[in-house]
Input
Amino acid sequence: MSGPVRPVIARDNAYFFAGTAIGELRIQKCNACGELRHPPGPSCPDCGAFDRGWVVAAGTGTVFSYLVHHAPQVPGKQLPLVIALVDLDEGVRMVAEVIGVPPEGPDGLAIGDRLTVDWNVIDDDLTLPIWRRTEAVGKRNV
Ligand code: ZN
Output
């Protein structure tokens, strides 16, 4: 089985993957006006400044919407996949792969569910965020 699709890491998003490598979910922040934004970009959509930094997110959020991906095949992944748009508590929205939930049925993911980030270590050079239901994270730690 081939590995997952690897992100293209460039100047605008290097901070993000440097964060995932050490277990930090980072959000781009405008150093000029303080606005948080995701996905990252070179300049602030609010004030136009190019002075960008980042903050570390709590790693928790709420499902805004989701889908269950059945096809086509995704390299390095077993289908179906549950993909959500998660509203982080800091106020930005991210695309999130959710694991540990059945793809269908009454126990499947629901809008409004609380999620907590976890880490999928692919290899020495790449760690990707994955998300679990917050309640499941609690149970896992018992
Ligand atoms: Zn700004």
Summary: Residues 30, 32-33, 35, 44, 46-47, 49 surround zinc ion (CB under 6 Å). The first strand starts at residue 26 and ends at 30. The mean pLDDT is 93. Residues 9-56 form one domain.
